[in-house]
Structure prediction request, 696 residues.
Amino acid sequence: MSAVVDFPSKPEARPYLDAFRRPAGEPDWLLQARERSLARFAELGFPNRRGEAWRYLDLGALAERPILPSAAGRVLARRPGAALVAERSFAPAEWRLVLVDGHFAPELSAVESLPTGVWFGSTKAAVAERPGLVREVLEKPHGSEPEAADAARAFSILNTAFFTNGFVLDVAPGVALDRPIEILHLTAADAGAAYHTRSLVSLAAGARAELVETFAGAGRYWRNDVVIVRLGEGAELARTVLVDEAEEAVHFGETAGCLEMASHLADFVLVLGGGTVRREHSIETVGARTHSSLNGAYLVSGRNQANIVTTIDHRAPGGETRELVKGVAAGRGHGAFQGRITVRPGAQQVDAHQMSRNLLLGRRAVVDTKPELEIFADDVKCSHGAAVGDLDTAALFYLESRGIPRDEARRLLIEAFLREAVELLQSPALRDHLMARLGRRLAELEE
Amino acid sequence: MLEIHNLHARLADGREILKGIDLTVAPGEVHAIMGPNGSGKSTLAAVLAGREGYEVTAGSVAYLGRDLLAMPADERAREGLFLAFQYPVEIPGVNNMYFLRAALNAQRRHRGEPELDAGQFLRAVRAKLKQLDIGEDLLQRAVNVGFSGGEKKRNEVFQMAMLEPRLAILDETDSGLDIDALKVVARGVNAARAPTRAIVMITHYQRLLNYVEPDRVHVLQGGRIVQSGDKSLAQELERRGYGPAGEAA
Prediction:
């Protein structure tokens, strides 16, 4: 790609520059956004561990053995079938969009018969049919030009250059979806590649929706997913994300959210699988009296690493934030939670609580936890806390004294520990779905 | 069934608590071990159940002809030893019913019996609850979480009824109970009496023995059994108290 090599570029960015191909049939504005973003990524390179935002994640393996996007238009050798979709899906979902290796799989999806006022489909379809809706968030996922992005945003900039598809959910004012919408991200190819996906959830004033997103796959691949969430006045979004990626997979999932007055975001993430996982939320509350809950749980073992990073920026008064993140690190696993709550000047009467609780199992496991409050208003109610501990030996003995073998007793207690977070979910069916997945994961846990 | 010979045990800090216990319990018998606070009653129960933090420095314990002390706690339980805790542990997030089914099925697997499915288990549970006059709501809650003192002890007795142990050790199961709860506990112990089962009740007071008649009564004092007798010994102790160590002998 001779057009973009005439500027300084970091060595780790070089393979990505070489891999770039202009997707056919895209509008000029999108091609320009992709090229500008690629150029910016080349300048930035990978995020640096010396910076705060990425300090707990080891990207050495990804830098050494790059995982590149596969050639555009490649025919998939082996499509996952309906059986895999059935195994992975959350049954009560009526509408479903399946992405395989970052490409929309219409034969596995159900995106029709939505209520009037709801547009639901692939990002590619939205580019063609609803450019006015998606253009800005595709060009500028964080509301700024790619040139202005800092190093911590390098991978979402890369996402702009390479995203193949994604989903768009746009709900008109006052329309409520009474059934959950499911997004399944699966993989098909044996030779893993990078799957960049970009999505948008836009709920207009008073709209309501529930989303369940699942990430699963096989082999060594890199999932780089960026979702933009925009909630209008009084809108409500309940979103649950299950990250159950393959052992060798790299998974970055970023959510950039903007909350208007009295809107309500209930976001939950459960990380059960993936070699290197980072879930990041950047939420801005621009209207008064918003409510956001960012809860989650992770379980790392083997040599896996998982980071949950949240930033909530209260720019308006009266906002309420609740965060509970529970982590379990076993084996040589490394888990980290970084949470920042900012309260801007004038954002009075913000009520924000953040808690990170962790179980550290074994001498080789590592947990880092870093809750942070940055408060520039004087009439607020904010608190944060963190705890790291081992399993309760009295509880363990009690279970053993009833004949439950030690391994099973430990699994029971780990499950109970994580259950506290899962039980924050409103939907009993969804709680059961996640607990069943967690149970499977625990059955194969090696401490 | 249980043969304890010259058992010595100490805490991790080196303090010796048990100083030569000798005790033989045969199938079908109910024994009461009484004694003042600090005499070593609960330590004896903990050592028999396999709790960590105690070191056996001398002596032996044979259970059904096997070396009990060589078995880990969970194996002792699967071999039919049950300890009713003085202070039952609260376990948030673990449903009481789920916990008990896991325990029962672990024991059944060990004996080569088929596991009970949820329906079979529920039927067995209901039958026992009725027999012991315990409410079903206890089962839907997390293990011992938010239970009153009486509820915790009832839960212990209920677990004993479900697990049908060969040797049950009740560690001060009667302490802190009002008269109704005490009766529930006594009913559970009496219902558990069987020719193939032995029961050892550790207690500070004679009160429980008004409802459960022991075959043998032992006085534990200063880490040793200083006196043994039939049920009349309990009444005698109630009258004259334990006295200083050694005096009762």
